C-alpha cells in the first residue's frame, strides 16, 4: 500500500470545511484512493485460479499440495 497519501489526509482535515481548498483536497484524495483500489483489483484479478483437483485415478485424489 502506498502511504504517500498520508499528507493529503492530514491536509484535508486541517482546512476549513466548505472551502475550495478543502473540496479540492478531498477530490484528489478520493481520486487517489480510486486509483489504488483499481490497481489492487487488477492485481487480484491477475492471480491465476488454483489448479483443479484430480477426480479419478490414484494420483492427486486424496491430498492437495502445491507450492
TrEMBL record:
Superkingdom: Bacteria
InterPro entries in the cross-refs: YjfB_motility
Pfam families, per database record: YjfB_motility
Protein name as annotated: Uncharacterized protein
